[in-house]
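Problem 12. The chain below contains 221 residues. Write out its predicted structure in token notation.
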Amino acid sequence: MNLLDGLFYYPWLSLTENNSNSYLIGGELPAIIDVGHLRHVKRLFQSLENDGIPSAALAMVISTHLHPDHHEGVAAFSGLDAAVAFHREEERHLKAFGYQIYEAMRIPIPAVKPRCYLAEGILRLGRKEFEIYHTPGHSPGSISLYWKDKKVLFCGDVLFYEGVGRTDFYEGDSSLLKSSISRLSQLDVEYLLPGHGKVIQGREAVKENFRWIREEIFPLM
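Solution.
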């Protein structure tokens, strides 16, 4: 689904099986954010093909965090040239605690190594520029990406439409999550693109969602 010029949206719509939304940033250095579970990557690759972007053309595969429903599918890129990238703190967490989620689901941790780590600062993909924010709480190395030119925020599992990421996994932290959400709420956002659920479009709708989370969910955290 073409959401904006140079931005494609692949929502996960099943009500019976969990998986993440995926987002493709087009251009001279195409990048995909959160490829989801490995068993669903074939479907994702077909969607990319339908939009004229073969998986072999991807320059970067970004995981907002390393939970299986966002990251397991990077195993499909082991023979491709795309650079897998995520926050270094997520790698530490995966080795220390996060591997237990994979074990509980009886799936292997992807053997693909990161080509680079993403940290606070600027990420350039050709002529496109993104601000990387370290937004812990749901997981210690969660990141969000802000595309200022388009006023687009990719927020992973930090927040959703009238919802926030779970903090009951190992090293989840509700105080950190509230701080991360409060920080993101200061950005000028017209498209909020979460890891699950619907995209929120329109500046006022995005502001209202932040307000609702702050007033209705923060007191429960």
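Discussion. The CA atoms of residues 80 and 101 lie 26 Å apart. Students who got a different answer should revisit the alignment rule from Section 12.3.
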